[in-house]
Write a structure and sequence with these properties.
The protein is mainly α and about 180 residues long. About 70% of the residues lie in helices and about 0% in strands. The chain has seven helices and no strands.
């Protein structure tokens, strides 16, 4: 009966929710990784001279794929940060590919490319939703770790705060974008 008021069950419940939400984030990242080879192959047919962009996407996907995305990853802040950085690199490479595709009207009109682009956009939205759920689950878990009397149970059983998604350069994204309608080209 002593364990009922100390938060032990709260840790079990919130930890499982964090793991489940993390698994969904990984699921969506995997979905994105699975779309990339088809997208690269489609672009290669139209834009073979964009080899550098295509190579960077392939390399970024390979780096992400080589990282061990185990449930323990969320308990190691350094590994979590590295994994998140690799995912951001992959996302950046895909963004550059989409910019390059603007130079190829035939590619943009290709049905396969349009379908893959729509799937990729949908996947990015799913990643955002999954990450938001994970953020909320980690917030609930970390709150349990830090509040009394749960914090005593956390210390006794070794429960520590979990890493969460962060913004690499918060000051940079806080700046308002510059909009110039007087571009004289």
């Amino acid at each position: 009966m002593l364990l009922t008021g100390c938060g032990y069950n709260t840790f079990q419940t919130t930890d499982e929710q964090v793991k489940a939400d993390w698994a969904e984030v990984l699921n969506q990242y995997q979905r994105r990784a699975d779309l990339i080879p088809n997208l690269v192959a489609t672009v290669q047919g139209y834009a073979s001279q964009e080899k550098e962009v295509l190579t960077k996407i392939t390399e970024a996907r390979s780096r992400v794929g080589s990282m061990q995305a185990t449930p323990e990853l969320i308990n190691d802040p350094e590994d979590f940060k590295k994994y998140f950085a690799a995912q951001n690199e992959l996302k950046g490479s895909l963004s550059r590919l989409m910019v390059v595709s603007e130079n190829y009207p035939a590619l943009k009109s290709d049905q396969n490319f349009r379908d893959l682009s729509a799937q990729l956009e949908g996947t990015e939205n799913r990643i955002t939703v999954a990450r938001n759920r994970y953020i909320k689950a980690v917030q609930e878990y970390n709150l349990a770790v830090r509040t009394f009397p749960n914090n005593i149970t956390a210390m006794l059983f070794g429960y520590k705060q979990k890493a969460n998604f962060t913004v690499e350069n918060e000051a940079e994204i806080a700046k308002p974008p510059t909009v110039n309608f007087n571009n004289s080209k």
